[in-house]
Hints:
The complex is a heterodimer of chains A (348) and B (233). Chain A has 348 residues and is of the alpha/beta class. Chain A is 28% helix and 13% strand. Chain A has two domains: 5-179, Carbonic anhydrase (Beta-carbonic Anhydrase, Chain A, 3-Layer(aba) Sandwich), CATH 3.40.1050; 226-318, Dna Ligase, domain 1 (2-Layer Sandwich). Chain A has a five-stranded mixed beta sheet, sandwiched between helices. In chain A, strand 4 and strand 5 (175-179) form a beta hairpin. The radius of gyration of chain A is 21 Å and the shape is globular. Residues 189-257 and 321-348 of chain A have low confidence and may be disordered. Chain B has a single domain (3-177), classed as 3-Layer(aba) Sandwich (Beta-carbonic Anhydrase, Chain A), CATH 3.40.1050.10. Chain B has a five-stranded mixed beta sheet with strand order 2-1-3-4-5, sandwiched between helices. The radius of gyration of chain B is 18 Å and the shape is globular. The N and C termini of chain B lie far apart (42 Å). At the A-B interface, helix 2, strand 2, helix 3 and helix 5 of A face strand 2, helix 2 and helix 3 of B.
Amino acid sequence: MxxxxxxxxxxxxHRATGxxxxxxxxxxxxxxxxxxxxxxxxxxxxxxxxxGALGLADxxxxxxxxxxxxxxxxxxxxxRTLALACVIKGGREIAIIGHTDxxxxxxxxxxxxxxxxxxxxxxxxxxxxxxxxxGLFASERQNVIRGVDxxxxxxxxxxxxxxHGLLLDLQTGKLEWIVNGYQTLASVTSAxxxxxxxxxxxAAKPEPEFKMGEMKFPDFQIGEGPADAQxxxxxxxxxxxxxxxxxxxxxxxxxxxxxxxxxxxIEATRRYKLIGSDLKEYGPxxxxxxxxxxxEGRIDGQTPAQLEGSAEWKPLSNLGDPKxxxxxxxxxxxxQAPKLHQPWxxxx
Amino acid sequence: xxxxxxxxxxxHRALAGDSRxxxxxxxxxxxxxxxxxxxFDPRLHPLMPEVLGVAESxxxxxxxxxxxxxxxxxxxxxxxxxxCAVHGGKExxxxxxxxCRFFHPLQHLLPDPLQFFGxxxxxxxxxxxxxxxxxxxxxxxxxxxVKFARASPLISKSIPVHGLxxxxxxxxxxxxxxxxxxxxxxxxxxLKETQPPSTIPEAPAPRPASPKEKSFPGFKIGGDLPPIxxxxx
Lengths: 348, 233
């Protein structure tokens, strides 16, 4: 069996660990999978290390960088950047590559507050919930898994795009493969998410399970507003939506209603009403927000939901629009798109 | 001369043929490391950070599509803020580049839909175009990014925020906004206000460039697009 791109990358990396020399991959063999869109942290130690660790030529990887390689939600601007890397730059596989010894992970809220104060920015000028706003995380590994999960859910990324999660050891240069995007793909595509959205749970996923219970969620205080970024960033949200009280703990989702399953039923641009576990009604809010709440574990497949315009309340996991079947995975060609010169499709 | 003035000066001297042009990082230890936001275009890999003359270890690199900042609280600004607070960045530079693909309407850039791995292209294109429509031209985009970064409550007023343009072929750097001389902000952003300012101030005239290269290549409207992902053949 021929190896696929990341199988070859990880294999070459493991062979080279110690000597710190990775032999460049024969790019003609992997032309179908290049370039790769890779999201990493901004840590300067990655500047000399990453290209060598992957063994890819400069022009074969699109390097996206933000602090902590964090993806906040399936519609965040980092997500849009990833999507553009694929549709405009021709990225054919996605990798979220965390690294060990991450300073964003090591920085506590108190330290962060002190550092901002040293720069002349008082606490009162910063958002209330720093953990949530900056996406501070407790585990580099979980942060990568969460990022991969958001990309997988995003309507901006094709369901057949391989999305990998890796962790780079800054000391040894060794790559650890946390989420194998090819395997996820096999289980996702066999579930035919677009035809039978709720039919198949994600339980068959072979890579490490997305464990909600283990993740570090922002600390909410019950009875207090969530003080999230939306309060400032998204004026279109209703006041009610901003007052979501989290009175249920983030718990492992039940089979068939995992966040990913439900997420497929939510259209980012439509509006929904929800009834929280505090029995209050929220919304109407945009589907994008529903996706975010799902991902954050504030709601789950059992949450009663209503599509705007409909009078019927259903559990989120049963929310389908009978009038409008979900689109098939492969849409017809865009009629206006002219034929373009595509150098990456060239065969040697 | 301060750090980025020295960088641009050395860059112009090097382009004019001075083989000894460069900066001495030790003289600018107070201004290092620098935080640089660029587009993720792979054509920039060979230029960054060599074109600035700073060491890899003094170069905190943030990339996104089209080096765009959409608001003073956008996730890119969060990264800029963490780059300063957590990684110790002392100055910020937003560096645009010529011939950026994101300044063409998306529908003209969609290659073969088969490439999209089953993506709902029309839905995604609508969303992405909404994002891209905020881009006017490369220089104005840099001006807007600098304004938003300077207006952000997350970025200290003590950190200079510069705007520059880099040429992917010649490596020439040109000022768009000199963060040391930047005039007081013509707007400020308050956490209580949710609506970011919509006006994009005019970019100041570029500093005289080196005799070799006077201006960036313009776009030929209706002309052939340059190959996507240049240099991949």
